[in-house]
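Input (Dienelactone hydrolase):
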Amino acid sequence: MATISISAPGLSQGLLYNNGNNNARVCITSETNEFDQQTIQEWQDEGFDVVYHPLNNGGKDYESRLKSVKEGLGVGENYAVIAFGEAASYCLDYYMKPMNANRLCALVAYYPTVIPDTRQSFPLSLPVLAHLPGNTIDVMTQPQALGLQGKRRRKTRELQPGLGTGERIQLAYPAFTYDYAQPGFAEHDMEEYNNLAADLAWTRTVQTLRKGFCRDPDLERLWEDHQEAKFFRSNLNKTLDGYVQQKTPGVTYTPTLTGGIGNQALRRFYEHYFLGRLPQSMRIRLLSRTSGSDRIVDELYVSFQHTDEIPWMLPGVPATNKRVEIVLVSIVSLRGGRLYSEHVYWDQASVLVQVGLLDPRLAPDNPHGIDRLPVIGREAARRILHEDTDLEQEDYHNRLIRRANARARMARGSRTSQAPEESGAEMKSEVETSLPVRHKGKSIQKEDNPESNRTATDITEQADDEHDGVATETGSTANPKPENGDRKAYVEDGEGENGHEQA
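Output:
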């Protein structure tokens, strides 16, 4: 039996466990005898007592090994399980039985190959989380007729994009889709490792464990509901419902100083300057999210065709039909489980360059001989989108610094000729010409009836024609998802087919 264990109650890093001796045990399991050591070490660094148990023989020996985990617990102590792949499928089915979930305080399933019938539910006291990459998932269904259960069947269903930019879906438990990732995305030693998806899943998993051990509130769900209403439904009332009532809320879009302070000012801002003023082509992709006890920070990759005036970003600027790609950072604080303030930042100079209002080569007359403004266009956003420090990459940083140093050396050498003016092709960044253009993101959708459910959209590839300077982006629209109380996962039996079936 492969076991890795560390007891580090003094390294809890702010986590307050409800266990008797402040020791939180986490059992990691997968179908392999060896597991990603870096992932194990990261959980140990969080102060957890980590035990790894491989799931062999189809899970036949898992229950016996689980006894050793429970035997090591003290009075009042619980344990959590993080399962991967086939082991995740087994654990979702195994712990759905209340008798098996005794003393289990949290269950996290990474890319299970099959999930239980979504009409079944876990014990209400058990926090459960699933990470579902790709476009399909197998569901184990069990028909019922006249109180009798039929034979269990395994069906492959399509996954629809989830709620908000985080793509959350509600099964019998919280789950998140990762359309741009493959199974294995969270393990550093796998070829499928995806740093963006892994970081998002990590944050959500930490939050689930905190719930299990100390019952922290789900601030991310509140923020997703707000973004759903603001970006994807254009619903004024639901957008405003998320803000505090007993205090004065405020929103500031810093580069243009748009927004408002107070509920009335926010209503005017959203009603006249934001909702319904987003380009149809806008795509949003969540790059990273940091959740704290009272604060959430989102890093978003945003792309759109400037086909309409956008008062909160480009006030007074008519449509230019130019392509814009930026990284937007939103810092949100919460009080009493509601939004209190939001500060939004982006590189406005980059936006102006991309819509043709600012030419870096047209520097004003100056005594220093500066021939180019130190600003960057869409390549800055692409650099962040494709950043992976674990991979060997060409050095895209400091290009403007190198250019400035070269001109300084030329000046010191008393050269009479000026630096050659960069042509349009030379102005393109090394990032644009060397990095693949893979702009995946969730499409902004507008509806005539703001109370109706948002239409789910496929996340599609966009190709950017750098030679012609024309960028295109396409998206296909699926059927609307029905709503019945809490939102469930709805899937299509076949691509392009009409009609939905509940997963």
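The domain at 220-353+438-492 is CATH 3.10.450.50 (Nuclear Transport Factor 2; Chain: A,).
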